Structure formats: structure tokens, C-alpha cells
Amino acid sequence: MMQSLHDAVEELKRVDHLIYVSLKYTRTVDVILNILNRMVDGYSFLVDALLQHAEQEKKLAVPIPGSAIEKADVVKDMHKEDVTVVDNMELYLLLRKLLRAKNIEREQEYRRHVTMKTIIEGREEIVNIDIITNYYLFQRDFLAHVQKLLGVKNEDMHREDDNPYF
């Protein structure tokens, strides 16, 4: 569980750098896709942490599923009343669909309003700098929420091998 949380934190650090440094200067859809990939990985680690915690607490009625969609559905079912968890699982599934989209349109690359457009389930989805930044902030809040749910403090997340100067 702690390893999954630690991995999620590391992925979010990478997303932060990609948004505030790489995307700011390159402004390409390829960087947006890389950010989406890192965000999906971060969500995957958070889902694993929630499922591992539920398994340790013997609150999981079924064995941990193998597929990401089934895992997200189990987490949604376990936390039906928690709007934050449900909304983040919906975003996680949307981000996975965005990554698998075949018909990606690239608009205004190398400009401030670089945009990725695609059609998912008959609806046009648009991802630009502002939208992906909001997704990231939403996911960062979810990380804090998961840490609170699992009873983990930020101090517990730091390990000695994180700092080469120890």
C-alpha cells in the first residue's frame, strides 16, 4: 500500500514538471499525451493503494480484479457515498479513453492554446493547457484525500532513500 502511494506521488511530481515546464515551453499534443499517460499511471497506483488497504482491512468482498476498469468499478462501489472518489474514478476512466483514442486532432501546436481533440462515445473531448492543469489539480487533491482515507500523513511518505544527502 505504501509503495503504491509513494509511486503515485512520484508520478504526480512528473506530471507537475511536464505541465509547468515541458508543456509551457514546447506546447505540443505529444506532451499532453505524455501528461495523460503519467496521470493514468498515478491513478492506477492510487486505485491499487485503496484496494490493498481494503484487502488488509478485510473490507473487500471479492479478490482484487485484474483489469483497470474492474478495479475502478470496485473502488467506486466501495466508496459510493464519497463524491471525490467517484468523480476521480470517472476522470481516471476518461483519461484512459483519451489515451486510447484513434482520431486525435492537433490544433495550434507550438502556441499557448495547443489543443488535443477527439471523439469519445459520440462526444467531442477537448484537452488544452487549462483543462489538463485542472485535471492535475483535481488529481492532486484526490491524492491528499486518499492519504486521509488510508490514515497516511505526508511525513510518512518520505523515505530516507528519497534524499541522497542522508
List keywords for this structure.
166 residues; mainly alpha; 6 helices
Overview of this protein structure:
With 166 residues, the chain is mostly helical. It has one domain (2-155). It has 6 helices and 3 strands. Strands 1-2-3 form a 3-stranded antiparallel sheet. Strand 2 (115-120) and strand 3 (123-128) form a beta hairpin. The chain is globular and about 50 Å long. It starts with a helix and ends in a 9-residue tail after the last helix. The mean pLDDT is 92.
Q: TL;DR of this structure?
A:
This protein is mainly alpha-helical. It has six helices and three strands; from the N terminus they run H-H-H-H-E-E-E-H-H.
Mean pLDDT: 92
Could you say which structural class the secondary elements and strand pairing correspond to? Answer: mainly alpha
Number of strands: 3
Biggest β-sheet strands, sense, barrel: 3 strands, antiparallel
The number of helical runs is 6
The N- and C-terminal alpha carbons lie at a distance of 24 Å
Q: What series of H and E elements makes up the topology?
A: HHHHEEEHH
Q: Which sequence of strands runs across the widest sheet?
A: 1-2-3
In percent, how much strand structure appears in the residues?
Answer: 5-15%
Question: Any idea what the radius of gyration is?
Answer: 17 Å
Query: How does the overall form come out from the CA principal axes?
Result: globular
Q: Are there runs of 5+ residues with pLDDT below 50, and where?
A: none
List the helices and strands and how they pair.
Blueprint: H1 2-26, H2 29-56, H3 68-78, H4 83-100, E1 105-107, E2 115-120, E3 123-128, H5 129-150, H6 154-157
Antiparallel strand pairs: 1-2, 2-3
